[in-house]
Structures are given as structure tokens and as C-alpha cells.
Amino acid sequence: MTIIHILPEHVANKISAGEVVERPASIIKELVENSLDAGAKTIEVSVKHGGKSFIRVSDDGCGMGREDARLAIQRFATSKISKAEDLAEIGSYGFRGEALPSIAAVSRMKLVTRAKGDSNGTEIVIEGGTIVSETECSCREGTIIEVRDLFYNTPVRRKFMRAESTEMGYMIDAVSYLALANPKVRFSFISGERKVLDLIPVEKSFERASAVFNEEEVKHLIEFDGGTEGIRLSGFVGKPAVARANRQGQIFFVNGRWVKSVAFGFALQEGCHGLLMHGQFAIGVLFLDIDRSRVDVNVHPTKQEVRISADSEIKSFIRKVVTERLQRESDLAPLLKMMTPRVPGTGIAPYIYPEFLKTGGTSTAQIAEHAEVGAGFSARGGSADLCGGKPALTTPEFAVEPIAIKDKFHITKILGQIHQTYIIAETEEGLIIIDQHAAHERVMFELLFKDMKEGKPKSQGLLMDEILEVRPKQREVLEEAIPFLEKLGFRIDSFGENSFVIRAYPAVLELENPVQFLKQFVEEKEDGQIRTNMDNCQEELVALVACKRRSVKANEALTFEGMRTLLTRLSGCENPFHCPHGRPTFLKYTVNELEKQFKRK
């Protein structure tokens, strides 16, 4: 008896589906691409519950006859290619014949279609890859595909699906990116009863930039166009003023196909060399048209990974075109981020002048010294009240009253600060090195979290409401976070399709620009960068506020009094040993360990 056997077809289909259908957005991408291949001029996508329970894609394309409809749900059945040589000249989105059978294998799917010129249409219902019914029906020309109960028969896959808002973001991206590459096709995207996208036909992709970028970003986009032998590159890139904290704003197309490419991302970044700070990423959309024979799209079932022969030439060309276009731009100055007026009478001063400005006879040297060290005041214990005065290493006084850290050890002397980042202190057992930013982050986190748990966040009203513009995908991210943000002291209301009005924000952020803070929050949340070692989502948001507020940073000089205050506050924390993200706040060395290192023992 043999132990190797051929898998049943329904099992093979589920395995294949695992490669093609990763999430609801994968289904939308595959179905919309089929609609585009069918010559559709209008495509409508409807979803419910983040695509988990219902997805519907309808188009006015060429449709299918009864026989073609039957064949379309069979594996490796396609109208795009007929022989192996066709793989070298693929001009359609689809060609593998895997999408529909893979989708049908892990859902309850209904296909309704009518070919142009036919008097009646065909309706086929499939559950788990098995045809349940096939009937003649009355319908308009084109195709409608409904997908319900995704992964109902593969519970393991369903368990790994993300929150509805996260899945919504991926779906919006899929529709928006395909709309960018097909500006003359009308696209609409509906979630529940809300129309998220309604993109009318336009002449150029640039006119659809607002589908993926917010209003401020669109104002700072620069179009470019360039060509060389066998290569054509067009698109638009953002000025440095609208750079992001992640690569979410980098979108690439090869011969009209939306692809993911780390190499293209690096090429775009290199094209902006010298204009961006570390940790900033240019936004841009690149359309690359090259000889089809140079492109291998048969790399992965999703067709989002491609191989290009002599790709180093492509990367160099991208870098060259982007660099030259930015060099021709006359205005690349950063945006001036003005501070927002605060409501008088709240008890929170936005800025208190340092002592040397209040007394006469101050020398220029003192003013310069104070400006270098930093000045200001925060009523809630921000960075400014730790930094005023003389730098630590110029002050001879270093003895302090013992500071007990959880009764584990006692700090007896503060020895100073090195590289304006780490505090060195003597303990009864040896010494410790404190990361000043991580330590202050922990202090602020516990203060903020206590306020939130007590339901009494100290909120700061704005003299004038501020408007935050977001992209459709980011809207879902922000809407999900608003209840938690309000517990921290924010007051945010929806204001239009993709806009929010900020009316108040936490008093602890009195020196921060609320619009810029929330933009960075949404970008990092969208990119998955906001992570803590805690399970509670509320704690995650508090950790972000504690980190992004004007807390003590690296390369910031502290006074001895400031260091003493910081260590005293750290000693009162429930967990003084780690910042909210899990990094250590200090490292401890005993005299015994030091003596071993110096070979004294």
C-alpha cells in the first residue's frame, strides 16, 4: 500500500487559496483586476464588517456566457493566456486562473453575469468550492460577484484576521491604488451604508492623488516625467515638508500593475538624498513602463512581486529622475509649524520665561548658555523644568539625599551626565547608568495612565479649532482610536468626509502641535509601529503620548537639580525599571562586578 497519494480537489483548492486569499483586501484586488481585464468603465465595491461577512464587486464589463461562467470557477481556467510563450508578454492583470476558485474554496460565493448581446444572464452559487445551484437569471450586462462568510470553513485562517478597521484600511488601499492606475474608470467603495470613495473618471492619475494623500500632502506633490531607452517613468513625489514617519506613502506600478518593491522604495529615498531627516520617508507614486519581456510577473500567486532584468538600471534611473526634478523645484522649504494659542485662564502657562530674562545685568554668555541647555516650564513635570540652569558637568555639587528605587538599592550621589543622554549615579552597591528619555517616559506614562483610569484627564481647550486632514484609510484608524484619545483629554469630532476638528487635547501636551501629534500617531498606528509589551490598547495609546510629548530626549543637557527631580519621580513609579515600550530605564553595576572586570578579584 502506498503512503503517497493525490490530494482531493477541494483540499488542493484550500491550499491554493491560502496563497491567493490572504485577507478581504486580497479578494477585492483580484475581483477588481478581473473587472478591469473585462473592460469595465464603472466598478463598485461594497463591504460589511471589514469584508469578513460580505464583499460585493460589480462592473459593466463584457460579462460571461453560461459556459464561460462555469469554466471561470475551475482551477487554471483563464481567457488571458493560452500557451507558455504568452507568459513572456503578459499585458493583463490576471492570467493564472486561480483567483475565483481560490475565493470560492474558502467562502460562500455567488457569481451573476451576462455577456453583451445575451438576453439572459447566469447565476452560480458555490459554497466551499462546491457548486450548490446554477440558474438562468435576469441581470444587466457585466458581472457581479458576492463573497460571504470568508474563511467560514477554515477557522484557523479566520482567527488570524485583524480588526475590522485594519482590514478596512487594506481594502481602501487596494481600491485606491487600482484607481490611481486606471484614472478613466469610475470607482466607488461603500462600507455598510457609508460611501468611502467615489472617484469619477479623470484624464490623469495626478487628479486622483487625493484618494491616497491628504489635502496638505496633495498641495506639495510635484509631477515628474522621464524616459530613456526602453524605460518610461512618470508620477509625482512629495516635497520634504510632507515626508512621513513610514513608507506607507510610497506606491509603485510596473506596466500598470501595483507592485510592492523595497528596491524602488530605496531608489525613491535616494532621489531625495540630503532633503530628509533620519526616520523620514518621501511620499510618492511611481509609474514605470518597460518592455514586458523584461518583467516576470509569474513570481507569486498574488502577482504583487515582480522580477525585472537589469533592475539596477531601473533603480538608478528612478533616483536620477527624482533628484533632477527636485533640484528644479524652487521651493523646498519646510512648513512652518506655528504653535496654537491656548485658552486663557486654564492654569497652564504655555511658556514661562527663564529667570535670566526676569533680572537685569545678564551677560550674553549666560543667554547663550541657557539657550543651549533649554528653558521653559511644564506644570505637569515636562522636560523644560529639568533642563534650566547650568549644565550638570559644570556644577561641583553632586551629593543628594538617598533615593530608594523600590527598596532594592539606594542612589547616594549623582555623578553627572554623559553625552547629554545618560545619567551616572552612585549607589550603595556600585553605580547605575540611567537613560534619561526612557526614565522620563516611564514617569509621564504612569502619570497619564493614572489620570485616565480616574476618568479625570486634564484637557486643554484650543482658542481656535484646528482641522486634521487624513486619507480614507487613516480615517478608519483614527475613528477607532477616538474613544481612547478622549480618555486622555482629546476632544475630536468628525468634520467632513476625511477631516476631523480638534477642539481640545491633553494639558500635558501644551507645548506640542496637536495636529502634528495626531498625524504622527495615525501614521505610526497605520504602519504598525505603535507597539508595547502590554495587552491593553489604552495603555498603548498612553505610552505613545508619554513618548511623543515634549519629554526629556537624548542629547539634552540637564541640571543636577533636574536629574535629582527625574530620579526622585522615577523612584515613585510602580515599574521604574522599564519604559512603556519595554526598554530598560537604567543598567546597574555592583562594585563586585566592576572589580571582576578590572581583575581585582
From TrEMBL:
Gene Ontology cellular-component annotations: mismatch repair complex
Domain of life: Bacteria
Database matches in PROSITE patterns: DNA_MISMATCH_REPAIR_1 (PS00058)
Domain MutL C-terminal dimerisation: 414-558
Residues in DNA mismatch repair protein S5 domain copies: 209-327
Family: Belongs to the DNA mismatch repair MutL/HexB family.
Function statement: This protein is involved in the repair of mismatches in DNA. It is required for dam-dependent methyl-directed DNA mismatch repair. May act as a 'molecular matchmaker', a protein that promotes the formation of a stable complex between two or more DNA-binding proteins in an ATP-dependent manner without itself being part of a final effector complex.
Protein name: DNA mismatch repair protein MutL
